[in-house]
TrEMBL record:
The keyword Hydrolase applies. It holds the Pfam family Hydrolase_3. It comes from Pantoea leporis. Its EC number is 3.1.3.70. GO terms for molecular function: mannosyl-3-phosphoglycerate phosphatase activity. Keywords: Hydrolase, Magnesium, Metal-binding. This is Mannosyl-3-phosphoglycerate phosphatase-related protein. InterPro entries: HAD-like_sf, HAD-SF-IIB-MPGP, HAD-SF_hydro_IIB, HAD_sf.
Amino acid sequence: MLSLNSSLMIITDLDGSLLDHHDYNWDAASEWLARLKQHQIPLVICSSKTAAEIIPLQKKLGIVGAPFIAENGARVVLGGEYTPPIETSASYHALCQTLQALQARFRFNGFHEFSDAEVARFTGLTLAEASQSRLREASEVVLWRDDEQRLPEFRAALAEHNLALTQGGRFWHVMPAGTGKGIALADIQQHLAAQEGEARTTIGLGDGPNDVPMLERVDYAVVIKGFSKTPVELQRTDTENVYHTAHVGPQGWREGLDYFLAPNE
């Protein structure tokens, strides 16, 4: 087991991992969150959520100023004070224009086509949270309504515009090519190692296919049992450093840390 007194960093997905897939609570993880804070172990959020969603969540979790990864790695904040946007960015509008052109060939809808109330209805978010989820900077959430067999064709069409497609726990996400949770984590690791003079041992927790690049990069990976049709499959050979949970959501999150970390320090 790893010691809480060692130089650790926890990287976590949110929906379906630290947060319950249905009601977004994290009660089952509370004890571990308090323990991590007590031992000053950084908790890095690595999510498909927007910066506008993550900032208030950091306040609730007591980790204001910590680095975080938003929009599946399309947005990286290295720490310190950060003010989320009050409106969507120009690069996001350009991305949406590209997607609108592709709707002539494929059947799908993006978050930009819906109202806050509509997003709240199909996600279970509050109206305020739905509004924050639509304050996007670099990626778009896509509801795929076409034949699944056409996804490779859609992926190829996106690549012609230097865009990539990744699958989350519930939705598809379109983002700039060359971005992702693994690349974003590498940026944060490099930044912190330069600040602290050493590399921290990393434990990553995630439940969806979009978490794979992050789970491949961390030293210890917790694959939380999820709801995605596509299983989370890692190519790692160090299987002793990978744990698959029996529980979902924050219960699985707690189970994963119980497995790798000594609890009584």
